[in-house]
Amino acid sequence: MGRQMTRIDTTFARLKAEGRKAFVTYIMAGDPDLETSLEVMKGLPAAGADIIELGMPFTDPMADGPTIQLAGQRALDGGQTLQKTLDMVAAFRQTDTTTPIVMMGYYNPIYSRGVERFLTDATAAGIDGLIVVDLPPEEDSELCLPAQAAGLNFIRLATPTTDDERLPKVMQNTSGFVYYVSITGITGAAAAQAADVAPEVARIKAKTDLPVIVGFGITTPEAAQSIAAIADGCVIGSAIVKLIGEGRTPAEVLARVADLAAGAHRG
Amino acid sequence: MADDLFNSFMTGPDERGRFGIFGGRFVSETLMPLILELEACYEHAKTDPSFWAQMDDLWKHYVGRPSPLYFAERLTAHLGGAKIYLKRDELNHTGAHKINNVLGQILLARRMGKTRIIAETGAGQHGVATATVCARFGLKCVVYMGATDVERQAPNVFRMRLLGAEVIPVTSGRGTLKDAMNDALRDWVTNVRDTFYCIGTVAGPHPYPAMVRDFQSIIGKEVREQITEREGRLPDTLIAAIGGGSNAMGLFFPFLDDASVQLIGVEAGGKGVNAKMEHCASLTGGRPGVLHGNRTYLLQDEDGQILEGHSISAGLDYPGIGPEHAWLHDVGRAQYVSITDIEALEAFQLSCTLEGIIPALEPSHALAHVMKIAPTLPKDHLLVMNMCGRGDKDIFTVAKHLGFDMKI
């Protein structure tokens, strides 16, 4: 498209050259507090995360299961705001200029800040892409198109209900990668089965040149391996967030991330 | 000038489901194909005479429509001004206007081959109506209700269970109506193949706000005929309570293009709109935002986090409002005011003692505003208020506030 390569594009080009699958991790910004979540975030690349999804807490996370709902609640109770999440990214960028960061969440906090102001601040902080759950292609003019014009990737979710007729519309303004939601359901719910997901990934790859990453319902190194094997990579969120919720130390959390990353990278 | 700007207030929403900047389809991709399918099915049914024939038959023989338009003679004399009519939607089967809409959605669900119905409920009136119609058609029914509301609306919880519905108390978030709606959406996203989400108000992603409005418009259509027959002309003022705003939208819609008819929506002012968010007046105390599939006025903090409202009435306890109301507010076609818990309680008692009608706490808010303005209006001013629900469900709440011991 003649657009400048983002850190996401560069990362996938490198992984492809190395013949490796991408391991994408999700944590909630400010969970359980800003300091701890920044410490975990800073340790993720060394633990094997190729891309970091950073959750923006929201009071009403309609697509999320209890694990991520509670994480958002903890963050908000701890005083997390969108500004603090942006500051957290800027702090991360002081020591890591290559790992892509995708902010993931819901539209209202962004809309409340003002789309233009948000995009300026997000770009300045060093964010590379956005996943906004409640903005389908029908609402592209809200944030998707302005974000891409500002040089950010807008990563879209494709789901089991996205049929072949609809798929081109979903792919049209997607960039960076496609996030395939492995199940109909909320985060942290039913386990994804590689055998069910493989034909779906193939169906999407037939319609796009972008990498296809699979998320939802992946909790173990074995599952990460089997899912990564049939896609360009996988996302793990709830399984990591759950450990943070149990009060594990950043070192313990990162040790588990390393196990999960090893699984994904075997895929 | 206004006539030049707008040919009609009744043409919305546009093809993107918007009323001005409000409305839209802010849902996850998993749900998007479902709401497009629903939209297509509704568009077809809307122009299908057999669909409306079935609705009319059920409205007449099952719900008991048309509901009477009653001249409240003693209330009128007491307040000493405008001539007050009450639209008696509290006489409907299940005790509120909610069933008008539920019937329409359940008939659509049947057309779409869905076998499992989910709903959210606050006061329990929409839940009871949904459970009732599901029983009538032999459909599985699951109702999400905030744990706080399960406690304060116990009679309705029991009614739903008697009717065969499964009531799931919602403890996520703060356990109120908005959290019940979140959990209903989570259920829908998980059970997409067989499940139909029956939304109880004029909110949610397109086509819900327009569809629910169309089903509830039977209220305003009847009022139009009834008042014309009684008084030989249209009313001067229409008043209705607003939580999400379905009974108000149903009353207002058929009159939107009658410039002489003043429309007033009454929001729940709780302990007062000036107190720190101890109210549910989205239009008076909120600002535009995106929640539950639509853009509308929301109670929210500076960072776009949604706030919990407060109201004595569980049915008005929602931080948003239907997008068409948000638009009518911004273009100035309707006026929105707020009434406090205390004012609503006074109106509740006045209706009981003067008219022998025990109103729900929701229309008690509308009545409280009638009490404020009726004395200031001339005697030939025709005022119609929607008595959208009866108060059986609220007697425990009211007893508590009046210090009456129900344990005999």
How would you characterize this protein structure?
The complex is a heterodimer of chains A (267) and B (408). Chain A has 267 residues and is of the alpha/beta class. Chain A has a single domain (7-266), classed as Aldolase class I (TIM Barrel), CATH 3.20.20. In chain A, 47% of the residues lie in helices and 14% in strands. Chain A contains twelve helices and nine strands. In chain A, helix 2 (34-47) links the parallel strand 1 and strand 2. In chain A, helix 3 packs across helix 11 (238-245). Chain A is globular. The mean pLDDT of chain A is 96. By secondary structure, chain B is of the alpha/beta class. Helices cover 43% and strands 18% of the residues of chain B. Chain B has helices at residues 2-5, 32-46, 49-63, 73-79, 98-111, 125-137, 147-152, 154-162, 177-190, 208-216, 218-231, 246-252, 282-285, 323-331, 341-355, 361-373, 395-402, and strands spanning 18-19, 22-26, 69-71, 83-87, 116-121, 140-146, 166-170, 195-197, 237-242, 262-270, 287-291, 293-298, 334-340, 382-386. In chain B, strand 1 (18-19) and strand 2 form a beta hairpin. The model of chain B has no long low-confidence stretch (mean pLDDT 95). The chains are: A alpha/beta (267), B alpha/beta (408). Chains A and B meet through helix 3, helix 5 and strand 6 of A and strand 2, helix 2, helix 9, strand 11 and strand 12 of B.
Task: Walk me through the topology.
The complex is a heterodimer of chains A (267) and B (408).
Chain A: H1 7-18, E1 22-28, H2 34-47, E2 51-55, H3 66-77, H4 82-93, E3 101-105, H5 107-113, H6 115-125, E4 129-132, H7 144-149, E5 153-154, E6 156-158, H8 167-172, E7 178-181, H9 194-205, E8 212-215, H10 221-229, E9 233-236, H11 238-245, H12 250-266
Helix pairs in contact in A: 2-4, 2-12, 3-11, 4-6, 10-12
Chain B: H1 2-5, E1 18-19, E2 22-26, H2 32-46, H3 49-63, E3 69-71, H4 73-79, E4 83-87, H5 98-111, E5 116-121, H6 125-137, E6 140-146, H7 147-152, H8 154-162, E7 166-170, H9 177-190, E8 195-197, H10 208-216, H11 218-231, E9 237-242, H12 246-252, E10 262-270, H13 282-285, E11 287-291, E12 293-298, H14 323-331, E13 334-340, H15 341-355, H16 361-373, E14 382-386, H17 395-402
Parallel strand pairs in B: 4-14, 5-6, 5-8, 6-7, 9-10, 9-14, 10-13
Antiparallel strand pairs in B: 1-2, 2-12, 3-4, 11-12
Helix pairs in contact in B: 3-5, 4-15, 5-6, 5-10, 6-8, 10-12, 11-12, 15-16
